[in-house]
Recover the amino acids of this structure.
C-alpha cells in the first residue's frame, strides 16, 4: 500500500511544492519512505528520496527547490523490501533513463528480480516498484523504445494488483497503468496529472478522468489519452467535473488529528443521522436487507470496521431479531465463499472503500450473484463504485491512522438500520450527538487519570459483555495501534477460560459494561480483583459496580443500545493519552498505513 502522484506541465518550473502538497495528501497511504523526482526540459532527472515522513525527508533533501516539467512523488508503505534508500521510490532503470513508481503488490516480484539479474539488468533494491520499472525496461529496448508497447508487454509479466506511473527522460509524456489499485487522472490548466486518489489532485483541478483496470493513461501537457492494455486500442471516455468539497487537512488547534477527530464525533454523528433521514439510498439499502428474508446478512469488514460489523450483528439481533454474521473480509471468502448465492446479502464496511481484503470479498460475492451493499466514508472509492447500493458515513476526511469518528458513525449507522428493521422510531437516536459531546467532556480528565496508571503496563485487557464486546475489541485495537503495548479485547465471560492466568498484582483490566449487564459483569470483575488485578470500569454510574472496581470512567446515562457507542469515547481517549505519554505520534504509528490496498 503506497501512494503515487505524477504531473506533467507545459513549461519547466519549480515543481517541488506541488509534489510535496500532493504527497502530503497521500501520506495516509504510507510513510515508511518518500521520494520525489523531476525531469527537466533537457531530459535531466533529479531524484531525491529517503526513509521517513515527507516533512522530514523534504526538509533534509530540499524537495521545494526541485525543478522540471514532469514530476513523480511516491509515499511508501513497505511490503517487499525493508524501508531503505534503495527501496524508496521512485526508481530508475539500469541505465537511468526510465523513472517510475508504483502502488500495490507485484506477487511474482522474487521471480522477476531473478530474471532481471540473469539478463544483466542493474537491480538496486528488493522492492516490487523497482520491478515494475525493469519490467518496462526490458520490453522498451525490444520494442524500439515505444513506451506504450513496452508497458503492455510488462503487464503480461507482472502478476498481482498494482498501479504504476513511469516516464522516459527523452519521451515527453507520463504513462500510468491501473491493475487493481486506485488511479485517477486530473486535467488542469497547463498541467495534467495522475494519482492514487482523488483528494490529492483536487487542489490542482476538479476535472477528472476515471481510469479502469486494464487501462494505460498517457499524459502530455496538452491532454490525457486512454488505451486498453489488452489490444492497445484507444478508449474514449468523458471527463467528469468533481464538485464535492476540497477538504483541507488541518488540526484546528488540536495537537493531533486523532484528538481533533475524536472531538468531531458529536457533529459527524448528527450529520449522519440527518443524512440517513433524508437520503433516497436508505430505502434501497433497507429493501436489499429485507429481501434476504430468513437468511443471515453478512457484515464484512477489517480492523476497526470489522468491530463495527460485530456491533451491528448485536444490534440486528437484539433490536430487530435479524440474524447477521460479522466476518472479516478474507474470512468471508474462506468460510462462506462457496455457500453464498443470489439469495444472499452482504454489507461491506470500509472507511477507505479501498481495503483489498474487503474488495476481494466483494468480488467473490459478485461472482456468486449475491447483493453487495457498501458502507464507506470515502466517496468515489472502489467500494462505492462496486456496490449495488451504498450509504456514506459522512465523516469528512479522517486523517489519523487510528480510525475514531468513522467507527462511531459505522456504529450509529448500524444502530439506525437496526431501528428501521425493528420498526422503531429513529427519533430516539436524536439524543446521540449531545450524549457524545457530554461523554467527551466528562471522560477526558478521567481518561488522563486512568492513563497515568496504565501507561507503564505493556500488557493489559479490555473485557466487554454482549453489546460492549465489540467496544472492548476496538479499545484494545486502538491501544495496540498507537501505544505499541499488547492489549487484548475479550468477551468477558471468556476471560476465565484461559487469559485470567495473566492477572497478577496490579494487572490492569478494563471492563466496558452496558446498562442491564452490570450484575453479570461484577462476577467477571471479581474473578480479576480477587487475584490482585486492578479493575477499571467503563460504564454509566452504577453503585454496585463502582464498589467492586478500583477506577471508573463514567459515561452518561443512556439506554443500553446507545451506551456502547458512548463508551467508545473514553477507550479512544485512554489510547490517545497513553500514546502521547509514551512519546508516540498517534496520527502516524510505526509500520501502519491508513489504507491497505494489498493482500
Ligand atoms: C483502525 O484504527 C485501523 N487503522 C485499521 O484497523 C482499519 O480499520 C482497517 O485497516 C480497515 O480499514 P477500512 O475501514 O478503510 O477498510
Amino acid at each position: 500500500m503506497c501512494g503515487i502522484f505524477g504531473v506533467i506541465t507545459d513549461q519547466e518550473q519549480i515543481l517541488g511544492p506541488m509534489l510535496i502538497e500532493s504527497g502530503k495528501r497521500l501520506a495516509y497511504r504510507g510513510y515508511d519512505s518518500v521520494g520525489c523526482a523531476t525531469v527537466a526540459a533537457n531530459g535531466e532527472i533529479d531524484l531525491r528520496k529517503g526513509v521517513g515522513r515527507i516533512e522530514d525527508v523534504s526538509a533534509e533533501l530540499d524537495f521545494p527547490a526541485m525543478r522540471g516539467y514532469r514530476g513523480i512523488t511516491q509515499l511508501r508503505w513497505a511490503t517487499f523490501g525493508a524501508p531503505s534508500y534503495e527501496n524508496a521510490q521512485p526508481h530508475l532503470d539500469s541505465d537511468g533513463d526510465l523513472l517510475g513508481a508504483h502502488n500495490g503488490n507485484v506477487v511474482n516480484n522474487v521471480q522477476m528480480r531473478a530474471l532481471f539479474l540473469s539478463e544483466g539488468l542493474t537491480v538496486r533494491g528488493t522492492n516490487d516498484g523497482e520491478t515494475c520499472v525493469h519490467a518496462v525496461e526490458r520490453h522498451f529496448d525490444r520494442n524500439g523504445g515505444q513506451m506504450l508497447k513496452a508497458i503492455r508487454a510488462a503487464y503480461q509479466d507482472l502478476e498481482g494488483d498494482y498501479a504504476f506511473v513511469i516516464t522516459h527522460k527523452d519521451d515527453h509524456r507520463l504513462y500510468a497503468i491501473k491493475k487493481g489499485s486506485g488511479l485517477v487522472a486530473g486535467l488542469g490548466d497547463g498541467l495534467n496529472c495522475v494519482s492514487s486518489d482523488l483528494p490529492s489532485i483536487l487542489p490542482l483541478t476538479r476535472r477528472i478522468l476515471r481510469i479502469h483496470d486494464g487501462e494505460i493513461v498517457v499524459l502530455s501537457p496538452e491532454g490525457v489519452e486512454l488505451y486498453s492494455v489488452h489490444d492497445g486500442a484507444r478508449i474514449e471516455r468523458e471527463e467528469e467535473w468533481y464538485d464535492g468539497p476540497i477538504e483541507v487537512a488541518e488540526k484546528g488547534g488540536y495537537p493531533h488529528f486523532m484528538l481533533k477527530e475524536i472531538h468531531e464525533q458529536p457533529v459527524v454523528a448528527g450529520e449522519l443521522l440527518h443524512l440517513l433521514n433524508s437520503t433516497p439510498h436508505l430505502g434501497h439499502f433497507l429493501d436489499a436487507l429485507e429481501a434476504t428474508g430468513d437468511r443471515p446478512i453478512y457484515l464484512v469488514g477489517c480492523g476497526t470496521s470489522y468491530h463495527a460489523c460485530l456491533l451491528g450483528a448485536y444490534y440486528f439481533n437484539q433490536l430487530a431479531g435479524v440474524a447477521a454474521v460479522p466476518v472479516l473480509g478474507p474470512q468471508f471468502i474462506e468460510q462462506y465463499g462457496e455457500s453464498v448465492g443470489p439469495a444472499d446479502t452482504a454489507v461491506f464496511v470500509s472507511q477507505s472503500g479501498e481495503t483489498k481484503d474487503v474488495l476481494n470479498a466483494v468480488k467473490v460475492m459478485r461472482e456468486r450473484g449475491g447483493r453487495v451493499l457498501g458502507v464507506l466514508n470515502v466517496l468515489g472509492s472502489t467500494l462505492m463504485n462496486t456496490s449495488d447500493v451504498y450509504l456514506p458515513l459522512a465523516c469528512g476526511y479522517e486523517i489519523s491512522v487510528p480510525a475514531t469518528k468513522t467507527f462511531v458513525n459505522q456504529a450509529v449507522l448500524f444502530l439506525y438500520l437496526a431501528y428501521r428493521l425493528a420498526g422503531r422510531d429513529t427519533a430516539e437516536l436524536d439524543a446521540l450527538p449531545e450524549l457524545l459531546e457530554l461523554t467527551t467532556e466528562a471522560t477526558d480528565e478521567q481518561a488522563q487519570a486512568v492513563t497515568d496508571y496504565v501507561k507503564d503496563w505493556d500488557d493489559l485487557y479490555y473485557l466487554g459483555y454482549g453489546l460492549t464486546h465489540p467496544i472492548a475489541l476496538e479499545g484494545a485495537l486502538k491501544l495496540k495501534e498507537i501505544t505499541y503495548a499488547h492489549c487484548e479485547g475479550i468477551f468477558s465471560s471468556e476471560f476465565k477460560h484461559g487469559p485470567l492466568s495473566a492477572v497478577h498484582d496490579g494487572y490492569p483490566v478494563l471492563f466496558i459494561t452496558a446498562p442491564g449487564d452490570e450484575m453479570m459483569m461484577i462476577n467477571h470483575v471479581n474473578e480479576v480483583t480477587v487475584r490482585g488485578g486492578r479493575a477499571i470500569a467503563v460504564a454509566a454510574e452504577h453503585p454496585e459496580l463502582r464498589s467492586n472496581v478500583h477506577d471508573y470512567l463514567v459515561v452518561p446515562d443512556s439506554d443500553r443500545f446507545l451506551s456502547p457507542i458512548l463508551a467508545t469515547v473514553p477507550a479512544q481517549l485512554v489510547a490517545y493519552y497513553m500514546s502521547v505519554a509514551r512519546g508516540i505520534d498517534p496520527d502516524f504509528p510505526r509500520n501502519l498505513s491508513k489504507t491497505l490496498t494489498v493482500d
In short: The mean pLDDT is 95. The pocket of 2-deoxy-2-amino glucitol-6-phosphate is lined by residues 302-305, 350-352, 355, 358, 401-403, 481, 595-596 (CB under 6 Å). DSSP finds 18 helices and 25 strands in the chain. The two ends are 9 Å apart (CA to CA).
